[in-house]
Design goal:
The protein has 299 residues and is mostly helical. It has 14 helices and no strands. The protein is globular.
């Protein structure tokens, strides 16, 4: 197993990485399409209703550290995804929000340093600053500035996921499909209740939504939440997580390309430069974290 973890990636593993990258990239664009026709909390509720129906069978005892699991399920479920779908609903373009949501990676390093006392390497600190500078530069573009509220909400959603990740680091390991099931079972009723209380026109939206919208919901609930998660689980069982996850950072590029080619996104030179700086910072943090964890493992 050790030799396999350090051997070159097989063609099947490369195909799985590419599949996950494409699925998650398409899913970001799908979120924007769905929220064009339906209220954002309704979209989240429908997505996780579909996911919960598939994943409920994986949610069974034991539930160690149940208090931490409850926090993870609440913050990583309805809070995180509610903010993400709200961000896409507020946005005119897919690209800026997608980039803002990637801040969860540097924010995870920052929160782990502040909350858990984990070491923040020089590379991670530099990447953190670069990522935020890139998002700020992108947002200050005259066109992207119109989406400043969506970018801010997307960054808040990224913060919620970063907090979830930090808490999960100190929680007894839970199989990913079981964790996804817990998130779905928490997100579905909470977002449905939120939609009932704070949104209107749900029935009309459901009646008038074109087939494409229902396809995006099936994509999010089945292909992204279930299939892609299973692929990632399979990959990290075969390889060190730090060796796989940096490749998955290509998913925002897929979203940006879809937004530009088919959804009317405007990519000015300043937006493109900001995106490149921000994603460069995110990759820097991911690679620095990988090196740090590898060093800790060897020690």
């Amino acid at each position: 197993m050790t030799s396999q973890r350090h051997s070159p990636l097989s063609l099947l593993e490369i195909a799985a990485i590419v599949a996950v990258m494409l699925i998650w990239g398409v899913n970001n664009a799908a979120a924007k399409v769905a929220t064009e026709f339906m209220p954002p909390l309704m979209v989240g509720a429908l997505r996780f209703g579909i996911a919960a129906a598939c994943l409920v069978w994986f949610v069974r005892p034991p539930f160690p550290n149940w208090k931490s699991l409850l926090i993870i399920a609440v913050v990583g479920g309805p809070i995180h995804y509610g903010l993400i779908y709200l961000a896409y609903w507020l946005a005119n373009d897919v690209s800026p929000v997608t980039v803002a949501t990637q801040l969860w990676i540097p924010l995870t390093s920052l929160f782990a340093f502040l909350m858990l006392g984990e070491r923040l390497s020089r590379g991670a600190a530099v990447g953190l600053v670069i990522a935020f500078v890139g998002v700020a530069w992108m947002t200050l573009d005259a066109h992207a500035l119109q989406d400043w509220r969506a970018i801010l909400v997307g960054a808040l959603g990224a913060s919620a996921w970063a907090l979830t990740t930090v808490i999960a680091r100190r929680t007894t390991s839970i199989p990913p499909l079981k964790m996804q099931g817990l998130l779905a079972l928490m997100a579905f009723p909470t977002l449905a209740l939120g939609s009932a209380l704070f949104e209107t026109g749900q029935w009309e939206a459901a009646q008038t939504a074109p087939p494409l919208v229902w396809g995006t919901l099936l994509w999010a609930g089945l292909v992204s939440s279930v299939f892609a998660t299973s692929l990632v689980f399979w990959l990290v069982q075969r390889r060190e997580a730090g060796r796989v996850t940096p490749y998955l950072l290509g998913s925002p590029l897929v979203s940006i390309l879809i937004g530009w080619l088919w959804m009317g996104d405007v990519l000015t030179p300043q937006i493109v430069t900001g995106v490149a700086i921000a994603l460069g910072g995110v990759v820097t943090v991911a690679l620095a974290e990988r090196g740090l964890r590898a060093g800790a493992a060897k020690a």
